[in-house]
Amino acid sequence: SGDQAVRDGRQMAVKMGYMGGGSLKELSDCTVGLIGFGAIARAVADMLQSFGVTVHYTKRHRLSPEEEARYQVQYLPMDELLKTCDMLSLHVPVTGETAGMCSREFFAKCRKGSYFINTSRGELVDDEALREALENGTIAMAGLDTLDHEPVQKDHPVLSWPEETMAKLLFSPHIGGITGSSFRRGYGMIWDDIEKVAKEKLGLVNKDEILFKADESN
Description:
The protein is α/β, with parallel strands linked by helices and 218 residues long. It is built from nine helices and nine strands. Strands 3-2-1-4-5-6-7 form a seven-stranded parallel sheet, with helices on both faces. Strands 8-9 form a two-stranded antiparallel ribbon. Residues 212-218 have low confidence and may be disordered.
């Protein structure tokens, strides 16, 4: 990595290597594919626009033209997205249909040398299929915020992969939802709901069903 190169005193060697090969890309040179397009993927799309990135997405039901224009994204079917995009980012829940979706067949369809990011759930990925994709160069690097069988312990199978394969992985501990601001927003929403229930003197399970009515005598 660049960090390790500096620590080892090899900064100029790395710079000259990139300059000679012309292989160092800017984000604006990349095409990103978002698999799923819920709230998190939409936030990612918004952030990527600031860097001039071409963003594609795939999901079961295509967005309206107005929504695509709002997020500046272009729809592609899954297979087309996999072979087109330099970076792939997962944004789907685990269901009977999506569990293990990132299989050998999935990675075989990816553009060679692409980058794979999973900030959703580890159960979406066949770990051995990912390992093969990293080792044969289909996936250049993977960023994993979550693994199957969490919490991750020292004996997790992925952590015993060969050193050269591990060098192509970047882990994070799945902590995006536990920031101080996240907790403040969460508790704020709870108190807002409590206040609304108190003022309206009723609580709703959904818009069609009343769960209870506040006791008028209280």
